[in-house]
Write a structure and sequence with these properties.
The protein is an alpha/beta fold and about 375 residues long. The protein contains eleven helices and 18 strands. α4 packs across α11.
Length: about 375
């Protein structure tokens, strides 16, 4: 009997501790907010938690539904909430936020709990529809909270451009007479396969065989297909047979003599194969496009893409890092998207020419370029979907 009483007492004590923990804890599971997705015609639930008697929603839950992101500024004690193409700025531990330079009061404060931030449920049920109703992105219809599908601006289509082709061989290996156009195409096809198989993206080649395509047609092709990225694949050459290494370029005015030399080498295709000086003049007449791009979002994004690719290439191949550079390549002009040109190595260098003919090395080049594009995509998608 005594053992039975002790067991009963221990069970009672355990239940009491659990109840105390539940009631004394500042956060406990509560109900859910139901939203109606007008795009999918389905209901979506946002779980809420009760914090000191007030219902809260985690930013993690909001981010999953609205494809939003947050960024904390510890110095300013702020949280930047990017949602539906707009930015809302919260002051941590206060009920205030700013939207389009106007301050609003949620009554209850934004709170940090453990490693996450929580916003009062009233922000979702009342403030979001009030702020975004004009665009019908979030609205209260017949007492039901509904929202449209967040616009998905993720990178979906990439144009890979194997440089040169057809009557234009590009650089020619000094020792083994390797043709640049062949190396470019082989590596481009490998990159295409990786991006399609591992990321499920739509990949378009400007050429899939040995044919000549003008430089302007390549970027026009990318624009016509509404590509999100343009990546041009090349191999290098130099009068100095000891020159070696990998470098990546994006469109801007060349700032070094080396960059200007590569720019001249790649741009001479126009004079040699597209109609001489008159053709060059036609490209130069388009120089105004450069100034537009320099002031657009694509300059910074192209720089970032070039950096990601260059870092992965150098790490994966152990080749000399010749860096990321700016140059005014004709092939990148008019590409209204992040665009880069990669120089995989020097065919004028006997050792690198031999490497560039090696199947395993070409696989490694393709894999590391793929990894660079993948890293860029993950970062860029988050920015574009806010």
């Amino acid at each position: 009997m005594r053992l039975f009483q002790i067991a009963e007492y221990m069970n009672w004590l355990k239940r009491s501790v659990i109840l105390c923990v539940f009631f004394l804890s500042p956060i406990a599971l509560s109900a859910a907010i139901t939203l109606y997705n007008t795009g999918t015609k389905q209901n979506v639930s946002l779980n809420t938690q009760t914090v000191d008697g007030i219902e809260y929603v985690s930013f993690h839950s909001l981010n999953q539904v609205f494809k939003s992101i947050i960024k904390e500024d510890r110095e300013e004690n702020r949280v930047y909430f990017n949602i539906l193409g707009e930015q809302i700025i919260f002051l941590i531990n206060t009920s205030l936020y700013t939207y389009k330079q106007t301050n609003y009061n949620m009554i209850y404060p934004l709170r940090r709990i453990d490693d996450g931030f929580y916003v009062p449920a009233v922000f979702v049920t009342e403030h979001l529809p009030a702020r975004f109703n004009a665009g019908k992105q979030v609205s209260l219809v017949g007492g039901k909270l509904q929202f449209t599908n967040p616009r998905d601006s993720s990178i979906r289509t990439i144009v890979i451009d194997p440089g040169h082709g057809g009557k234009d061989p590009g650089a020619v290996g000094r020792k083994l007479k390797t043709l640049e156009k062949d190396i470019n195409l082989e590596v481009a096809i490998k990159i295409k396969t990786l991006l399609e198989n591992e990321l499920g993206l739509k990949i378009i080649l400007t050429r899939s065989d040995d044919r000549f395509i003008s430089l302007s047609e390549r970027t026009k092709y990318a624009n016509d297909n509404k590509a999100d990225l343009f990546v041009s694949i090349h191999t290098n050459a130099s009068q100095n047979t000891t020159s070696h290494g990998i470098e990546t370029y994006y469109l801007a005015t060349a700032t070094t003599s080396e960059a200007r030399a590569v720019e001249a080498l790649e741009n001479q295709v126009v004079e040699l194969y597209e109609g001489g000086r008159e053709a060059v003049q036609r490209y130069d007449d388009l120089a105004f496009i450069l100034s537009d791009i320099l002031q657009s979002e694509y300059l910074e994004a192209s720089n970032t893409l070039a950096t990601q690719i260059q870092q992965n290439l150098v790490f994966g191949t152990k080749a000399l890092d010749r860096g990321v550079h700016q140059a005014n390549f004709y092939v990148l002009r008019g590409a209204f998207m992040p665009a880069v040109l990669i120089e995989l190595g020097f065919l004028s260098n006997a050792n690198e020419e031999k490497l560039l003919l090696n199947a395993e090395y070409k696989d490694r080049l393709a894999r590391t370029i793929f990894e660079g594009i993948k890293r860029f995509k993950y970062r860029y998608d988050r920015i574009r979907n806010t």
